[in-house]
Amino acid sequence: MNRQNFLGHLALALTLILLAAFVGQMRRWQKGHVAPSSGERAVAERVEELRPAREQREASEVIVRFRPGTTPAQIERVTERLGDRVEDIYENVKGYAAIRDGDGLDAQVVADQYLTQAEVEFAEPNFQIEAYPEIPSGAHDALNQPPATGPNDPLLGEQWALINSGQREGKTNADISAMQAWLQKSTGSEGVVVAVLDSGVDYTHPDLLNNIWIRPASVAPYTDEQLGTIEDEHGYNAVDNNGDPMDDNGHGTHCAGIIGAEGNNSLGISGVNWKVQIMPLKFMNAGGSGTTKDAIEAINYVIERKKAGVNVRIISASWGSTMRSSGLEDAIRKAGEAGILFVAAAGNSSVSNDRTPHYPSSYPLPNVVSVAALDRRDTLASFSNYGPKSVHIAAPGKEILSTWLDNEFKEASGTSMATPVVAGVAALVLSVEEKLTVEELRERLLKSVDPIDSLQGKIQTGGRINAARALGVAPRAKAATVAPAFDDNN
């Protein structure tokens, strides 16, 4: 071939290559159905700005709500188009999916990418959630003997939330009237299931072992289209997507014991319920950190188990943040529609939730109960959040003795401890009135309070929950109020 022919062929080859590249780009645009919009171009420009930092960042996750009617296959196509991967499609929280970024981008940038897609209604980053840090408790005095009547648990005398005899400078009868409720109405029922959405639960603890939920033989293992089949013998672990919700932090085990440590077994403490079924849900790791994605997955699991015939009626949630998640809010709403009450901690920042909302306790949903914490003198705990519009009820939450890891018992303080007290009372009510709706159960709890002067104008109900009153037992004589007036430092 002479030089002139060679150059001619080379020019023709280069032209064909450029033409093929142009046609390929046109096809990629056509596959996306529309040419890039101004919004898509803006996101693409931001993607390029962030390109150098991609390799150093862990893969981001987002929660996306797709428009009604969008099929799983269409969701897969959208994520493939953006180079991402579907982690889970929440069957019981319709329209939502958890998506993992494949390009090393910041979560907010990924969310913005999805908002440019015609199939997408809403997108948000997968927020981090932290367990409340432990509030230091005072000195632990010698243990008292249990009362002459009631359960024979040897540490019961230290459980002032249940029976306050004035121990450790407490106020006599500043408790939830547990003894009155037990002796006159109910000590709980194995037919009621309470899900503890937390760091998991030590389901081998000797004071919890007999009250841990076990999946009935009549209920098939949990199956999820994306996650597969999970042998959920004792609940669900959303951190590792398996059926082992063993607690490696301690927080969830403490909350579980408040609700349902086995009563009258000559061991340790008594829960608000002597008998109940605790369903462990793990969405926080050993460091006490979790995400909204995993919280939604766990709630989705509870809703599915309810549909499968498990009588789970309450979720106890002792955690939160100031970040609002529409995905989490919709998941909690769906739980309510399935007949599940959601009891949530008001928070430990000593602030008004009316001014600074705290989630999930501040979601304005008909199945949410927000709980503040009291000390042993019926005073709002110094760390507790409050708010007459957004915090509904108060319960004992300071220096609360409960189950812990390694078969131990430990005191802890926080609205984290007050929340399972209310969840436990809700379970106690259902043990005698199982057909109550979520709305009826919530109303019963809020109307059961003992009014406390210092809570007026600080908590919606202005009072502390009373288990006996919630069960319909006539209240005992009211003790004189000695709690000091509330100020912003309390």
H/E element string? HHEHEEHEEHEEEEHEEHEHEEEEEHHEEH
Number of strands: 19
Overall shape: globular
| Mean pLDDT metric | 87
Beta-strand portion reads 15-25%
The percentage helix is 25-40%
Please describe the biggest sheet, giving its number of strands, its sense, and whether it closes into a barrel.
7 strands, parallel
How are strands sequenced across the largest beta sheet? 9-10-6-12-13-14-15
Termini Cα gap: 94 Å
Radius of gyration, in Å, reads 27 Å
Structural class designation = alpha/beta
Number of helices: 11
Which spans have pLDDT < 50 for at least 5 consecutive residues? 19-36, 50-57, 138-146, 478-490
Structural commentary:
The chain has about 500 residues and is of the alpha/beta class. About 30% of the residues lie in helices and about 20% in strands. The protein contains 11 helices and 19 strands. Strands 9-10-6-12-13-14-15 form a 7-stranded parallel β-sheet, sandwiched between helices. A hairpin with a 5-residue loop joins strand 16 and strand 17 (about 410).
Quick take:
It contains eleven helices and 19 strands.
